[in-house]
């Protein structure tokens, strides 16, 4: 039993860094109707500020082309037909691009090495002048179309995970620094106030952070922010044609990592730079079934609660299962990263984010399992979770909260729950026999069961305080809202529900 | 414990008479946006064929007017601006008008007596020739606008509850028969195949049925159908400024009534006429809180199940709380008839109709508490209910079904429930302190809790049969769907959910 | 020929007072779907800040009711069901209410006198204490629902045209001042920063303005703004059962009136008060066909151009033909005030407002027939009109403009026209045989022809200036936009349209 | 001057073969939002029955994959995630797939040769058994998802233009016949009533038709229809990096071709087979600017009018410029095939189809320039065009029609026009400086000018006949509708528009 007594006063702010940015499948997918529908739902319920994905310069978006002239020579042709359609759509939805420059257009690439089923080219430019021109053309076009004031708000990040050989040829650090310098100068040459950063590395190579910042200092490369990724799974211990199975580290593992890197930056020549986690999740694999589970939500709850202490943003990877890194999804549930699964079905982690989005700014209490906030209108909003990595039954967790209520009114308590039996379409889909390509009625059922369970009650307040006791099942995540009641019952003159057949006083 | 063993074979058809027609508040309200939104939802989820309401000729729809000519005389002016807008909308939604002629336009009325807060005039025409002209003009206009083929499908009913003094001056039977004859002839003079009927009486005066049919026979008045209403509450035993409280009769009361009247028709000069119940509900009062309860749904379940045995249609009164007979609603829940409450909140009875709409045509079993059907695709759909008129706790009801399953596959069972604790926004609204004019977040919560609870499971089949045991709480109504599973699990090579952290074999 | 040479520099601002407020039919109509659809289109294309109409306290909105208690006494019951639905909708559309308190609820009225087909009661309250309570309850409810910050932006105007006997019993000035004082104090007692004003008179009785402000000074009645109406037609010279025919004054008649009243205010004890024209139009009659004509647009163009010099706002009466003051409209076009006619058909005056909404803030030139502005992006936007009150043909007007173009680029000129032959659905409807209740295909045609004619061309610039010559037909209103061209033609290497069959160089 | 006198009687039917089918870019594009929006508009205004495009089996739709098993072997995996999403969407829009089997999945291909920017593989299967399995799996899945009754209505066509070396390796006829036989048997083995056909050749190789049908006869290959393509341009005489320029043949060239091939079929062993033109247009190039012109519409008018005499269907290639055969479009107008251009802008040919969709079934007169029909409601609908291949000005064409009008009423005439100056967004775009990636306000203007010009008038009838004289400018296409008027003018008592200021009798 966790007993918590919440004081009336606090000056702690719960920061919204968790909703600064969200990840997406490669930008070319943003032309698709289902992608756009999922993003619309995410924005309505969670409303992120920025979106970041790979593939701005990949050949399906088609920005970099060459035209052959009459004399047989070629010249660059920059085609913005698709990227305009995509960014127009983002901005219409109230979300801004967090630009990632990559991967290499085939016509500019120095080699054939690619990553992902969609074959992003990961080799350095064969000609850095042409690359510089491309970066300038792209950034200039954005300003021409959207205005300088708007584009000054867009971070520009150079490449993705160059410390891995599959994302950057030979994980060649010197070559990356060269790319970074050319790119960042190309951006700043368009306008000096544009924000550029890197090195966008994945975990396990944090010496790159230090080296990168020293390089910027020594080589006078512009840098406005530092970026890194964070995942918390070990290498897969079992791999099938369709799935990766991996162990999870404890969830303070990620928090410690972020703290450590922040300290590295603090100790660097640029101690004041913002620090963005431009990707994070449990597993880095798009075919790990953990992403479809309730555990995923329960595990990440503490990250959303605490990671903002160390980083300026952290961007969940990704909002939707409209995603092709491991090929076209082979089944309704396939272990994809998405908050929303195929056919618009919410996964448990979607609700985790939606719950956090309903929290207040005033942080009254926080520990490993709970975050108590007060909203502007005086109501309390509490996120609470019971993450359990062990297998087996049981593991219930009991809570007793003693909460302050302004003006001593009775309260209306609304509790929204996702757990193994509620808001868990993955489980129902398994009961259905795991239909790969579900039919309309099956999709309808999966949508219906993908909603949180809601429980409500009315409780009386004593001396300006209310006591709440409740129990969380394994991997349950709850949002509990406590609203002082403006009771109008007495205004119904002569009201007596027990005069209704079937209803006694107790039922009403 | 009710134990039921269902045989494989049946030739009984479950008739859709229950969805032939739905009631509406006066037609003038059909201009309103909220009315139209509610009707749209009703049509999407239930899809009635016809809609019937008062007030076609009431002054707010504005059909009958007079124009003063230069010489000081007046002539009739028929204004179809509003009724065209209304009927265009109905037909766009796939619902046809079941016409009720009434009430009397002020300029044609012989007196001042009105009914309802909206003051429908209930006096005979001061000039039956002008009335005849009006009927002809109206019917002719419908044919001109919608085509004869369409209008031949519309029943025309003459007046509403003329056997009550508040709906027809002095409840004057002779005067009604006169009205009926003039009206029916006016209709038939437009086209002889148009369908006209009456006497639209409420219960308690069934001698009118016999008298009416004899009158038609003796006076050669055309008649194509017989209509009547049916409500099952006693007079109110308590009345407050906002509510009527009434006792309910047992629900076979209505079934017996319908049977009796059908026999009266059978014994009349027109034994083959269709018989339409053009209004029914528990209470006839628009401010009886019973309409907002789960009891209302549980009570009417048997009516939907069985009334089609006796009548060609029965029209639930009404689809929406956008309704003004007892003045503008004073509160979110006020005892209105609507399947949908103000602000688009589904009441329990909405789900009763939605559940019935998902039943199959093949009726495998029916008794007082359950209706088992098979759908065209071979799945079973079962409606089951536990209506309890007594006050107090308990009253659970246990069922054990032994069901035939084609091709012996495992089955996926989906059970949707409304009861006192699920799909019951009235209860949550009371917890909130009965807000009369709820705010957006309160409306959002009420919408969320107005959905049925859904439970799913997978069960194995033995020898082509499956056993289901379940318990219904007080006033619970369920839809249970049993779908044979097309199991694809084996196609996932190497699948093993127990490789996921937290999940053991038992959890998956 | 009007020749105008426009200088490059200006410091004159074209004020948006013309779009501060728009009139509406009585608030009860705001529940209707067609009303809401029209308002949505108006907001998309014109986007007014406020909306003002009669009937807030009329019985169909149903705010004031009384409940009978058990002891036989009654007490007030304030029902906000409908007004909440209406104001929620307004605010969702980005438009705020400009409150008009009126007319008298039947239960509070001291007499039976009514105005309009919808019977607004125009008698003083029988009990000023109950009236005070009502005003307080209403204003308090608005603050409770929408927040103080929001409601502080709403002007509260007391009554409508009390100087006319048909709008205020006996046009009793002393009684109005009493009503005003009680009402304004009731508002200020809720919060002292709320804005209240009057006397909302129609023209022809401007001594009321002076008397009213002296009264406020002498009796310490709060006053935050002065309001008045303005129409420019004489009494009808011909009246038929369906139409009023009236002569129009010259259109500077209204401008002079506004100037005069502004001077009256300046000379009063409250010289700094804002001055709102809370209604204006050509004719004050809802059945004058002039409202459906192109003349109406051409006539009002100068008002939109200049009235903002004298008044803080002027509110066109009204946005839609969903309107019932002269009964339910009897025909598609019936002389209603609306910018949008029944069935969503734009009238010429709609486009006048839409054209003005596309003007810039920088006013380069203005005279009786033309208003030349520059927009923030450097393009020019010109409204020009040729109002002709005389009958007969001819009356074309020629213009020659010499305009400054920044950076000397060629310009793309887009000219949108409404005149007797374009954007004139009234004319096409007459060709159709004036169908009162048009069918869907007729409505479709009327919608198609209700759009402006568009002409485009490309013109070259010389020395940073471009010359435009054009001719306006009788009653034509144009929006001319002049956009410097960012020419990309040369980037199409080898382009030659004359290589296409049928097209010679001249055609391309 | 063409003078035409139309008789009252006719028994000729104007067949709707022209709207049986429409072409589309490769199926993978059907996931995109803009594609779907364009198709929605096409269906609303034209409503084709079927849609046919390449790429069902291309790797981006992703149907054919292989999975590696634990023992190192592989097996086929059929992924229907995307094709289900696409066909669900088609059927929701009321359009059925006209299946084309092709191109070759990379994993099944015998070589590397590809066609188009999107690299469709055009080599035979490396293993015909696997191909047979694939076809069976695909067709079986369609039946499983959509039902046999539905899929029996889908034609299955084998490959695309195998007579061209770029579409089928070496244009190897024997290999194609082998492919055809295996494929058609695979289809028929799923269900013998499914319809299968070929050879889908382009023009210029009609001996394939004869050879193909003889092959089917000799080798007992099933065949249910014959298919072929038809384009009417010569080889390009000028090619730039962005455009093809080609000469057009006279437009009876195509009609003669169709007649000739129909005769070939008639003379074959299968004389009764249906004959489908599964692609046609002026130019076969997706970068020929002719597709953006008014000429394209004027040219094809006669084809729509007459081709149905010879073929059972002819499928315009294609409905939308969302198309990538020549890479991502580089500009707003780029010579694409689409009826609808990028950003939803209607091209002239869109209106040609929309005009034809409004014609009646009763064909009163037809010649090279005009098609006169009567609709069910008695109105006349006339398509008339003035195609001019010569360059230069002039070329107007005058018409005088003498038309029968039922019941001798006056008529309302609505004339919709597209020509070089109306409904021609290509021209306005050129005036704008050919912006490649237009901004929102430019797109808005292009949409506005992409609508037909509408002229209306009222004309009187004499002796049941009306005379129409009109002139068509170069490349003009018109729809003229002649509707008998139901005149209600007289019902407006006292009406006199000349009482309105500005309006004399002549204006009204």
Tell me about this structure:
Chains A, B, C, D: Residues 10-466 form the Glycosyl hydrolases family 39 N-terminal catalytic domain. Chains A, B, C, D: This is Xylan 1,4-beta-xylosidase. Chains A, B, C, D: Pfam families: Glyco_hydro_39. 4 copies of one chain form a homotetramer. The first copy, chain A, is of the alpha/beta class and 508 residues long. Helix content of chain A is 26%, strand content 24%. Chain A is built from 11 helices and 26 strands. Chain A has helices spanning 33-45, 81-92, 128-146, 148-151, 173-190, 207-219, 252-266, 294-306, 348-357, 425-431, 440-449, and strands at residues 2-5, 21-24, 50-53, 64-68, 74-78, 96-97, 99-101, 114-115, 120-121, 155-158, 195-201, 225-231, 238-239, 244-245, 275-281, 313-316, 340-341, 345-346, 362-367, 370-374, 380-385, 397-404, 411-418, 453-459, 465-472, 477-484. In chain A, strands 7-10-11-12-15-16 form a 6-stranded parallel sheet, covered by helices on one side. A 6-stranded antiparallel sheet of chain A has the order 19-20-21-26-23-24, covered by helices on one side. In chain A, a hairpin with a 4-residue loop joins strand 13 (238-239) and strand 14. The first copy, chain A, is globular and about 95 Å long. The two termini of chain A are 32 Å apart. The mean pLDDT of chain A is 96. Chains in contact: A-B, A-C, A-D, B-C, B-D, C-D.
